[in-house]
Amino acid sequence: MQYSIEGGSLPVVIITLNQGEGIISEVGGRTWSRGDITTETTSNGGAGKALGRMLTGESLFMSSYTANGPAEIAFTSSFPGRIVARELGPGQSVIAQKSAFLCATAGTQLSMYVNKKASTGLVGGEGFLMQKITGPGMAFFEIDGYCKEYDLAPGERIVCDTGVMAIMDETVTMEVQTVKGLKNKLLGGEGLFDTVLVGPGKVSLQTMTVAGIAKLIMPFITKK
Fold first, then answer.
1. How far apart are CA 175 and CA 198, in angstroms?
2. Beta-ladder partners of 14
């Protein structure tokens, strides 16, 4: 399997498949294909995992695409930003925001991940329920805006706005802390909470969020 990510801020990942190779995505995730490809609808792991995916914003079932010869298949981002590829070893997992998962090679598992701390899920912006993607395989994610990646050392911390964390290694822990100081809370403009990521592990941060865009355009929407 080979792939290329094209399109700038409106990206597409174009994947070249050999005979017998396959890709999974949420139902209807494919944008276009070329060549002989068989499409099947699957639960990809049983009813339990299917229900968990639905709770994280994905469809109940998934589409499986298998090449019957040399073929090409493409998946596009649903929002301006970037597509990020992560290669996962056997049993290796990453945690992603809801709806960040785009597609992955056959054999990759997509399931639900529950934040261990209730406060993180309730006010963190990333959500109480997140996605867990487990290898082996190559997985592709859609990032809103620009993507900045950091490799955190053990115990190293990075503080960011809520909703900015897009993907993190399973070894990274995520917490929420209250912004200090009454003046900062009332006048700072940064919100009441910050997301704190603690290493070790790799984290991918996004510079734009759908919620942020909605906040910007809200004053321009005329109510009738």
1. 8
2. 4, 74
Domain that holds residue 149: 2-217
| Closest C-alpha to 58, from 15, 101, 5, 90 | 101
Residues 6+ apart with CB under 8 A from 81: 9, 11, 142, 143, 144, 145, 146, 147, 206, 208
CATH code of the domain covering residue 54: 3.60.160.10
Is residue 223 assigned to a domain? no
Residue 224 lies in a domain: no
Going residue by residue through the chain, which has 224 residues, state the pLDDT in tens, using 9 for 90 and above: 999 999 999 999 999 999 999 999 988 899 999 999 999 998 765 444 555 545 545 566 899 999 999 999 999 998 899 999 999 999 999 999 988 999 999 999 998 888 765 444 444 445 568 899 999 999 999 999 999 999 999 999 999 988 899 999 999 999 888 766 544 444 444 557 788 999 999 999 999 877 777 777 878 876 65
What residues have CB less than 8 Å from 153, skipping those under 6 apart? Answer: 199, 200
H-helix segments, 60-135: 118-123
Q: What pTM was computed for the model? A: 0.82
Structural domains in the chain (count): 1
